[in-house]
Design goal:
Pfam families: TAXi_C (PF14541), TAXi_N (PF14543). This protein is α+β, with helices and mostly antiparallel strands and 451 residues long. One 2-acetamido-2-deoxy-beta-D-glucopyranose binds next to loops.
Length: 451
């Protein structure tokens, strides 16, 4: 009797083991560790725009077991940070120990103990280094524990999502829940795509040995971010490669915004050398050139690209000059009352409609080489505010904003913008409508052959 029950227990244990092995071999969790031969050449994240708050968010899998995280997409952000106050359950969470290589990678010199909980918990461990996660919506930062955990996302062949891949020890900051104030629910943090070593582009490039390069394609509701090499393909069969983009040098602002985690170091944001603006093919006269260049001592002035400003913000004198040139070049248009945050609105009745949006004067950003870097047609300059009124989608930033021109999300929509960190350049596709496609036209249907 005893022998038989022992035997049965053994049988039972072995069948559980067998079942486990079977489940493991069937479970669709390809990771780098399990498939050393598989090296993706690029990765993708989907992007969604919240219609009310105009925040662009993305989703990736985090932790073990994996949890889908919605994160604000922050082009200039220096790291990934997530709210660790919500129950954070993960068997793969590891705090970054003081003075470890991870702390140097994050340029963190802050080192400390945590007394806010009696026992170690994600976000609160002793002898760990910290960084300063930053919320760009509320311009707030606080200290947070630097840590690693696994993240997963889809690889791509440029056309479809391919196999899911994981980065087992992805560096990020643990933030207290108050830092998520201002983020559109269910956002649990911020995905920074800035130029630091710990922002997403550099960590992915290091994990998969592909170039430090990424491309953002924001849509009015859906879009995509590619990491690594192109090509970038959109339905129906429209391909963008480095050859089809117009490149401009990326500038480094030597002085970070106060309060960001890169304080005291060069900014992690992307600046471009705009030297002038054309409206309707003609240069806007008398733009203040002091404002257009970055002041090396203070970091003020210049032009940056932003995914957290919903519309382009211009310093007052630039705003007035551009708006007046626009009205003059538009000719016979009927002004309507201003609708905040815009100052220049028009009756749409008199406007023509083209493939590239309302037929209004083109606004062009001219770069240091005298060439046009970014051309904005009606689809990127005119914002429909009611059935019969559309406004010039630029916002007056006041007389002393830190940055003279902040190119915002609406002006980037349906343009593919590639940031080549190694080559220190940014490439613009021009409006995708010109080739009869949109940023929402990346084919997110999984293909079994795409890698
Ligand atoms: C950190 O260490 C101190 C004692 O040195 C202890 O009181 C505290 O509870 C520890 N904190 C954590 C999170 O382990
Ligand atoms: C990969 O892509 C598929 C199809 O779009 C999606 O359902 C899945 O959530 C993605 N996986 C990850 C890890 O993002
Ligand atoms: C240009 O901008 C700078 C910096 O704001 C300002 O000091 C200067 O007076 C401006 N120049 C003109 C001609 O308005
Ligand atoms: C301007 O537009 C109005 C109404 O659309 C029209 O009546 C008028 O003739 C136009 N004027 C010119 C100079 O085109
Ligand atoms: C999207 O990709 C899937 C998988 O490769 C393919 O079956 C489908 O035909 C594609 N959709 C279109 C509209 O081409």
């Amino acid at each position: 009797m005893a022998a038989s029950s022992l035997h049965r227990r053994f049988l039972h244990a072995s069948s559980v083991l067998l079942l486990l092995l079977l489940l493991l071999s069937l479970s669709p969790q390809p990771s780098i560790a399990q498939q050393p031969s598989f090296r993706p050449k690029s990765l993708i994240l989907s992007v969604t725009k919240d219609p009310a708050t105009r925040q662009y968010t993305t989703t990736l899998l985090h932790r073990t077991p994996p949890v889908p995280l919605t994160l604000l997409l922050h082009l200039g952000g220096d790291s990934l940070w997530v709210n660790c106050d919500q129950p954070y359950l993960s068997s793969t969470y590891r705090p970054a120990r003081c003075r470890s290589a991870l702390c140097s990678l994050a340029a963190s010199t802050a080192c400390g103990d945590c007394f806010s909980t009696p026992r170690p918990t994600p976000g609160c461990n002793n002898n760990t280094c910290g960084i300063f996660p930053y919320n760009p919506i509320t311009s707030t930062s606080t200290s947070g524990e630097l840590a690693t955990d696994v993240i997963s996302l889809n690889s791509t062949d440029g056309s479809n999502p391919g196999r899911s891949v994981s980065v087992p020890r992805f560096l990020f900051a643990c933030a207290p829940s108050f830092l998520t104030r201002g983020l559109t629910p269910p956002s649990a943090g911020v995905a920074g795509l800035g130029r630091t070593r710990i922002a997403l582009p550099s960590q992915f490039a290091a994990a998969f040995s592909f170039p430090r390069k990424f491309a953002v394609c924001l849509g009015s509701s859906n879009g995509v971010v590619f990491f690594g090499n192109g090509p970038y393909n959109f339905l129906p069969n429209v391909q963008y490669t480095s050859q089809s983009l117009t490149y401009t040098r990326l500038l480094i602002n030597p002085v970070s915004t106060a309060g960001s985690s890169t304080a005291g170091e060069p900014s992690s944001e992307y600046f471009i050398p705009v030297t002038g603006i054309n409206v309707g093919g003609k240069p806007v006269p008398n733009l203040n050139s002091t404002l257009l260049s970055i002041d090396a001592a203070t970091g003020r002035g210049g032009t940056k690209i932003s995914t957290v400003d919903p519309y382009t913000v211009l310093e007052s004198s630039i705003y007035a000059a551009v708006a007046n040139a626009f009205v003059a070049a538009a000719g016979n248009v009927t002004r309507a009352s201003a609708v905040a945050p815009f100052g220049f609105c028009f009756r749409t009745k008199g406007l023509t409609v083209t493939r590239l949006g309302y037929g209004v004067p083109t606004v062009e950003l001219v770069m240091e080489n005298g060439r046009v870097g970014l051309s904005l047609f009606g689809a990127n300059t005119m914002v429909q505010v009611s059935d019969d009124v559309a406004c010039l989608g630029f916002v007056d930033g006041g007389s002393s904003p830190r940055t003279a021109i902040v190119v915002g999300g609406y002006q980037l929509e349906n343009n593919l913008v590639e940031f080549d960190l190694a080559g220190s350049r940014v490439g613009f596709s021009g409006l995708l409508f010109g080739r009869q496609t949109t940023c929402a036209n990346f084919n997110f249907t999984t293909s079994t052959t795409a890698a």
